[in-house]
Amino acid sequence: MNGLVYFIHAALHCCIVGYGQQVWPEPYKRLDRRPDVDPYCQALYPFCPSGDPDGRMPVMRDSDIISVFRLQTPVWEFRYGDTLGKFHVMHDAVGFASARTGRNFTLEWYELFQLGNCTFPHERASVSAPFWCNQGAACCSDGIDDVHWKQNGTLEKIGEISGEMFNEMARWVQEDNETGVYYETWTVKSDPGANSTTWFESYDCSQFVHRTYKTLLDMGAELSSQAPTCYTKIYLYSGEPLYLGDDSIFQQSSTKDLATDIKKFYHSFRSHQSVVEMIESLLEAFEKMVLEKTFYFYYNSEYWKLPMKYPYVKITYEEIPLP
Ligand SMILES: *[C@@H]1O[C@H](CO)[C@@H](O)[C@H](O)[C@H]1NC(C)=O
Ligand SMILES: *[C@@H]1O[C@H](CO)[C@@H](O)[C@H](O)[C@H]1NC(C)=O
Ligand SMILES: *[C@@H]1O[C@H](CO)[C@@H](O)[C@H](O)[C@H]1NC(C)=O
Ligand SMILES: *[C@@H]1O[C@H](CO)[C@@H](O)[C@H](O)[C@H]1NC(C)=O
Ligand SMILES: *[C@@H]1O[C@H](CO)[C@@H](O)[C@H](O)[C@H]1NC(C)=O
After folding, report:
1. For this UniProt entry, which segments traverse the membrane (predicted)?
2. I need a surface site. Which of 60, 109, 130, 319 has the fewest CB within 10 A?
3. Residue 285: CB within 6 Å of ligand 3?
4. Helix, strand, coil shares of the chain as percentages rounded to 5?
């Protein structure tokens, strides 16, 4: 049955590509509901430790006035030769403060098992396919830690909304959290130029913040930022991606060589416990790409082959205006 589904899926992809109707960027696939996490995936740091245990959002009185804050803090900075420049990786979140109660909240979206696990899979003896611990989720926690955001980052009030609007947004957050569950680290583009084609869009904390602003603006909120709103993007550059298939690649004898190649590609990326190990793997990935010009890319739980192009990979911190 799976084989048939795979065949139909692959055939559909071929037809779409064949008729030149492949849509780029490839749409991020949403699910009906969030699947349970495999017990193999164990978080080193608990996800959302100060959030509501049942994942509920706070409820505001409709007539309340809620201040909205743009929050940003550096995750790490790192310099690697002149090729990659200075990494400037920021984490983004949105803050809310109730005028009625004085309580405030931090809303963010991040990896359940850290960035390394969302970027590279595990090898498991009992499972033929590479194994991913790549879910991300929204976390709404009590309080805004002013010092944490202000000291080396940003804490900026960007507007006010009604309690009613907050509650409507909260319903959107829950739905978004149920249906968009896989973290995607990379943005894949044809080149660094202004007119490049985007093959795949990332799905990460800054995309969530951007979607939240857009949801509020669509409801009629007025938000504006005095400072430029910059986000970290982790880019890969490649020619048009080639669709390969899903996990069935690793189960069928007809795709055995491809399966071996993909596993070999991911083999050298060891599992990561720290950010430093994660950076080391990114650099290994970079060298591999320069040498082999191939990246086996995982998106929507499917594999694609990227014919890599100069400058291969880039981590940027660039301005993306409010929607
Ligand atoms: C990544 O996933 C592995 C496998 O579940 C786990 O052992 C490890 O703790 C995770 N890393 C982090 C930083 O959570
Ligand atoms: C989002 O989903 C995760 C995983 O199920 C859950 O832990 C979290 O509380 C949810 N967040 C919100 C704001 O609903
Ligand atoms: C959030 O609430 C705490 C505790 O009342 C307060 O110290 C902090 O300044 C508030 N932050 C914002 C941005 O409202
Ligand atoms: C801000 O940066 C300085 C210097 O890098 C560091 O010592 C300090 O711990 C940082 N503060 C926070 C809240 O991250
Ligand atoms: C991008 O495309 C536009 C419209 O086709 C053209 O006017 C512009 O010069 C291009 N810019 C670059 C950097 O190629």
Report:
1. none
2. 319
3. no
4. 30, 35, 35
- For range 151-155, the mean pLDDT: 86
pTM: 0.86
Ligand nearest to the CA of 97: 3
Q: Whose CA is nearest to atom 10 of ligand 5?
A: 195
Contact predicate 317/230, CB 8 Å: yes
Residue 19: pLDDT above 70?
no
Atom of ligand 3 nearest to the CA of 155: 13
Cα gap 129→306, rounded to integer Å: 19
Q: Residue ranges per domain, the chain?
A: 2-26+50-319
pLDDT digits (tens, 9 = 90+) for 83-140: 344 556 778 999 999 999 999 999 999 989 887 788 889 888 889 999 999 999 999 9
Distance between Cα 92 and ligand 3 center (Å): 18
Q: Which residues of 23-47 are buried (b: 16+ CB within 10 A; e: fewer)?
A: eeebeeeeeeeeeebeeeeeeeeeb
